[in-house]
Amino acid sequence: MVTVALAVTSPAMVGRDEQLGGLRSALASATSGVPVTVVLGGEAGVGKTRLVTEFAAEAERDGTRVIVGQSVNLGGDGLAYAPITGALRELAAQLGTDALLAAAGPGRAALTSLLPDLPRRGDEPAGTSQGRVFEAVTGLLEQVAADRPLVLVLEDLHWADRATRQLLGFAVRALGSARVLVVGTYRSDELSRDHPLRLLLAELERVRTVHRIDVPRLTEHEVAEQLTALAGARPPADAVRRIHARSEGVPFFVEQLADLDDGTTLPESLRDLLLVRVEQLSEDSQRLVRLLAVGNDRVGHDLLAAVAAVDPDALDRTLREAVSANVLRVDGDGYAFRHALVREAVHDDLLPGEHARLHALYAATLERRLESGAGPRRAVTAEAAHHWFCAHEHEKSFAASLRAAAEARSLAAYDEAQRNFERALELWDQVPGAAEKAGFDHVELLARTASAANNAGEVDRARALVEAALTEARAAGDAVEPSRLARLIGFRALLLSELGLPGATDEMRRALELIPPDP
Ligand SMILES: Nc1ncnc2c1ncn2[C@@H]1O[C@H](COP(=O)(O)OP(=O)(O)O)[C@@H](O)[C@H]1O
Ligand SMILES: [Mg+2]
């Protein structure tokens, strides 16, 4: 039987006066027309979301508009623009679609390619460029904030995709005198030396209007306060000391420990501690929790029902059990883990075969839904490609990656396009008859990947890919027509000049010489 805890989340936020002060003065500055960006760092579970949520509630009470976007953890780099589109959907819900489109003004077309569910005018072209998307989003924020100051929260930027990072870098400078405060949170313990967010943070640190706020662990005194708030009475001093030491002052672990500190023998590591609660669930409920750990951060009810393939009553029962045991929480019309740390612990605990099987289950279900036209196409295709890859289903992952790349490219989400092309490249040798399946040869895949990389700003990578394409094309001799070779050489010349390297003009001349004269 599951023991249901009374208060699992501290009713009151303890400490954080300094950090709240920093956020308040940043908002005051933004409100007076000096836009400010705050990057808020701290380890997982330390209370970044809680701090931002409390601050946002206070700001809203004072008449500020708040929108929040969540980065999606899809393994590797996230889904293009995910936190931005999430925040803009919230804005659309607050303002209504018409007002949103009116506020977008000239950025309307770029905005509708970012949010395909918005109504599109007949005369609007479908594709767009990254620059237009950036301008449309900042223009929209500026316009909306003219009316009421705006706080844009971008959560968990360590999972954000490159397009989001670039947009943030752009917005910090482009917002002019808009009354906008951007708050980006990230896990400081997640940033390895070569993490791409590190570069952006270093770049932002040089901008005067960017402030960094660190969210530290709680002191023993603060842990005592949190425990008091949780239990409704002050706990004995030795319990405080024990829980403070065990949790290392991370409030999320304080909550877990407060709830379990009742004689249960606790595991050594904090990670395993997170599994204790899961292991107390019924077998069916645990199965469902494992299934959810393989899905996205948040899995919609319909998708979960389709993947789980159990009868609706049993599904509801097992879900309710996991929610009341505080492993899962209801999130809109879907489910999420109460905290990403729990999801990660469950995920890491899966057996390898189980891991692959569950991913394959998601992929197959998503593709069935795609065929029946449910859900936003691009996100679903990219997710299916990701799941097939994790399931080691090479052929299916290959096909889905190419489709996802093409769809991302049509949206100017070049980094996502590049990522999917790169995955297809990685899989090429493992897919029998890859060229027939793709509809083009390996040289062409290299060239398309190079082009996406170049558009995504990865010029060095683009050049390496073009060199590889050229080497292969030359080795193939007559099998590659001169005009294709010429295009590749021309592309390389373009990259050389973008990189400021010599030889671009000569290369271009050679490319032109290869093109057969008009008949
Ligand atoms: N200062 C605080 N006082 C009380 N509870 C807190 C505090 N900070 C965080 N918590 C609680 O700890 C848990 C983890 O916090 P969260 O904000 O989700 O962490 P993060 O976003 O940094 O991973 C949440 O349940 C939250 O309510
Ligand atoms: Mg958080």
TrEMBL record:
It comes from the Bacteria. GO terms for cellular component: cytoplasm. It comes from Jiangella aurantiaca. Residues 14-183 form the Orc1-like AAA ATPase domain. Keywords: ATP-binding, Nucleotide-binding. This is Helix-turn-helix transcriptional regulator. GO terms for molecular function: adenylate cyclase activity; ATP binding.
